[in-house]
Protein: Signal peptidase I
Amino acid sequence: MTAPMTTRRSRRGRSLSGHSSRLWFAWSLLRSVILTSAAVLGIVCVLVFGVSFAFGVRPLIVLSGSMEPTLPVGSVVFSRTVPAAELAVGDIATLERPRGLGLITHRVTSVHDVDGTTVDVTLRGDANATDDPEPYAVDTAGLYVFHVPYMGTVAMVLKTGYGIGFAVASALVLIVVFLLDPHRLRHPQAAPLGGGASPANAGGATTARTGEEGR
Structure:
């Protein structure tokens, strides 16, 4: 009866070992996906904003739907500053609105030179049926280069208390995921303590003392 019991225990041990190995493999795969995704996202953000600033391109968040579907609400628009005289019909431009009302990003429908530097630019949103109420007299403008959908929404959320909390929690999770290296957890390197005896030496010392007691 001893042999069958030993066989069953051996099979159970192999089964548990195989299950544990699958769990470690799954965690290793999930960890790689999380860390790789975070790294790729970080690299993309650095490249987008680094290249934009290096080439004098500034980011702006789209707050209204007047340019949909071309520029969805929450997108980040990157534009570069150019002389207003370089604008052409069909361009997407960002201009200063009069009376300090801020910026507006619409499509150019007409351009009229005033004095060689200042031009009157008429704009219209792609979602609007008519032009803006009045032309904009400007000498420089932001000319659309590209946009990233929904990046502005993420940026605005991260400015809130909940967004900051989420960012901090995400950073902590990434740190924990990074530290839980499956290889190190499965194969910890136990360094011997200074002055400690090996099992063999310890056994020998015990035998010697026992022998002395028997004398």
